[in-house]
Fold this protein.
Amino acid sequence: MNKVKVVISNRQNDVKIPTGIRLLVRRCCNAALRLENFTEDAEIAVSFVSNEEIQRLNAQYRGKDAVTDVLSFPLGENGKYDKNETTGALLLGDIVISMPKAMEQAQAYGHSLQREVGFLTTHSMFHLLGYDHEAGGLEAVKMREKEETVLTMLGISKDASYVMAND
């Protein structure tokens, strides 16, 4: 099994990060890579941010002055990634999750914050791996199927509740 380093930072104070969320994020990253048969060592950065910070990033990088739930910043293109010269790991990119927006969406969809963060992490991982749903069509369907496959693998599919052992 390849080594996957997931660096997680909490840059917001709006939502208390529940026990087990960091482990869940790491499991989602690993499961997406396993599903894609990604065999290289990899590094991913995940940040939990406020609505204000994600709105600023969304405006700066996408020209959309609005709060969004998650942003993906891939560091690769066409399967080619920069490499951490010290570790040899491929740098896949950054995932930025608005925790207040994730909380709001979890409540709106009637599921747990863990399920929402799991979905957003998995969704972003597929963006880091080159998938795009923006144009719709078959690409969007394939990406959605892969997301649900990962969540099902981890026991957090749409119809399942997520409870972590020792939580």
